[in-house]
């Protein structure tokens, strides 16, 4: 099958596996989502949700984040990795929102990526989930799965992975595909212990096939030894 046929096959399988895939970061508006995604860098969504449960009760607007000393905000998010730099970025971000956007999160990719702590991935997540603009955000799960399944090359940059997915996936499916690839990577094709033996995509996954070879060799070696002993 060609690249698009392969992508269609992959999308069909992960759609069956994770039909309800969605953004797992708890939020009620674009501003909260922006803060949550910023906090999620090098941190699990589960931990972020635990922190934002109280954080979003205390801070409702950009003004609220600027009304406290930086040290206080740092303490409020100290369970998050890189909490000091993230606290600083949050206050800088809030200042820009107030000064330039009347306290609202900008609805353009360019406006979002100019905010401190907001890179291309964060901007794509906010654009797709908060504003309904199709986008594929390439996080660590999407990158890993795309490379293992041969959608992208092992040495491709994050941007290259995003561009290849955008080319192969219909635009109206970008956001949903992003969520399903994340779920596939987070709950099935894990970084340390991928579930290759029961993976329905093993037929198109060279990485999975490579991982399965040692088991086959060990099994065959044991069979050969048994036959030799019997002889």
Automatic annotation (TrEMBL):
GO annotations under biological process?
base-excision repair, AP site formation
Instruction: Could you list this entry's UniProt keywords, alphabetically sorted.
Output: 4Fe-4S, DNA damage, DNA repair, DNA-binding, Endonuclease, Glycosidase, Hydrolase, Iron, Iron-sulfur, Lyase, Metal-binding, Nuclease
Q: Which protein, by its recorded name, is this?
A: Endonuclease III
Q: Which gene encodes it?
A: nth
HAMAP family per record: Nth
Catalyses which reaction? Answer: 2'-deoxyribonucleotide-(2'-deoxyribose 5'-phosphate)-2'-deoxyribonucleotide-DNA = a 3'-end 2'-deoxyribonucleotide-(2,3-dehydro-2,3-deoxyribose 5'-phosphate)-DNA + a 5'-end 5'-phospho-2'-deoxyribonucleoside-DNA + H(+)
Query: What domain of life?
Result: Bacteria
* Every HhH-GPD domain range: 39-187
Ligand binding ([4Fe-4S] cluster): 189, 196, 199, 205
Keyword Electron transport carried by entry: no
So which cofactors does this thing need?
[4Fe-4S] cluster
User: How is the co-factor bound, per the entry?
Assistant: Binds 1 [4Fe-4S] cluster.
Q: What class of enzyme is it?
A: lyase
Q: Does the keyword Disulfide bond apply?
A: no
Q: Which family does it belong to?
A: Belongs to the Nth/MutY family.
Q: What Enzyme Commission number(s) appear in the record?
A: 4.2.99.18
Native organism is: Paenibacillus nanensis
Q: Name one GO molecular function term.
A: 4 iron, 4 sulfur cluster binding
Identify the SMART domains for this entry: ENDO3c (SM00478), FES (SM00525)
Instruction: Please spell out the taxonomic lineage of the organism that makes this protein.
Output: Bacteria, Bacillati, Bacillota, Bacilli, Bacillales
Q: What does this protein do?
A: DNA repair enzyme that has both DNA N-glycosylase activity and AP-lyase activity. The DNA N-glycosylase activity releases various damaged pyrimidines from DNA by cleaving the N-glycosidic bond, leaving an AP (apurinic/apyrimidinic) site. The AP-lyase activity cleaves the phosphodiester bond 3' to the AP site by a beta-elimination, leaving a 3'-terminal unsaturated sugar and a product with a terminal 5'-phosphate.
């Amino acid at each position: 099958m060609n690249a698009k046929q392969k992508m269609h096959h992959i999308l069909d399988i992960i759609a069956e596996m994770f039909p309800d895939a969605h953004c797992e970061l708890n939020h009620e508006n674009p501003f909260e989502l922006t803060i949550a995604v910023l906090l999620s860098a090098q941190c699990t969504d589960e931990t972020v949700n635990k922190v934002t449960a109280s954080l979003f009760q205390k801070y409702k607007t950009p003004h609220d984040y600027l009304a406290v000393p930086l040290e206080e905000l740092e303490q409020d998010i100290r369970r998050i990795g890189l909490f000091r730099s993230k606290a600083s970025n949050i206050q800088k971000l809030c200042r820009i929102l107030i000064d330039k956007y009347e306290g609202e999160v900008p609805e353009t990719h360019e406006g979002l990526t100019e905010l401190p702590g907001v890179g291309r991935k964060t901007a794509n997540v906010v654009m797709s989930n908060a504003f309904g603009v199709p986008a594929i955000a390439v996080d660590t799960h999407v990158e890993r799965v795309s490379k293992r399944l041969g959608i992208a090359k092992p040495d491709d940059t994050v941007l290259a992975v995003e561009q290849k997915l955008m080319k192969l996936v219909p635009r109206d499916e970008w956001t949903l595909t992003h969520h399903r690839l994340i779920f596939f990577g987070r709950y099935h094709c894990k970084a340390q212990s991928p579930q290759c033996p029961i993976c329905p995509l093993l037929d198109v996954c060279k990485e999975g096939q490579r991982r399965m070879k040692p088991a086959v060799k060990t099994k065959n070696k044991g069979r050969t030894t048994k036959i030799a002993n019997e002889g």
